[in-house]
Each structure stands twice: as structure tokens, then as C-alpha cells.
């Protein structure tokens, strides 16, 4: 499981996930707002299974 989420992508995932979870806790919006757990988890782990499937990577390149 190599990291494939980095930089701004990681920050946006964490913020979006937290916003959706807060909306769900406050009862604002539909029950689907609990889906915020997914971007929060992928942002915190730095790994996204969908990115792995499609071969995407937003992590900076490591210099050898």
C-alpha cells in the first residue's frame, strides 16, 4: 500500500470529509453526508483505492 494521495489533494480530502461529517452530526443535509468518512480516511492514510485502480498518483516524485 504505497501512498498515492499527497499535498493539496490530502488537505482537500480531510477538509471535505470533516465538513460532511459535521453536517451529518448536526442533522443538516441527507444521510449520505456520512460518506464524509471516506475522504477523511483516505486523506489521513494518504492512500486511495480508486487511485490505485486507475493508476493515479498525486504524491510528489521521490528523488533517487
UniProtKB/TrEMBL annotation:
Source species, domain of life: Bacteria
Entry annotated with the keyword Transmembrane: yes
Alphabetized InterPro entries for the sequence: YgaP-like_TM
This protein's UniProt keywords: Membrane, Transmembrane, Transmembrane helix
Chain segments annotated as transmembrane: 12-34, 40-59
Positions of the Inner membrane protein YgaP-like transmembrane domain: 1-62
Protein name according to UniProt: DUF2892 domain-containing protein
Origin species: Aromatoleum evansii
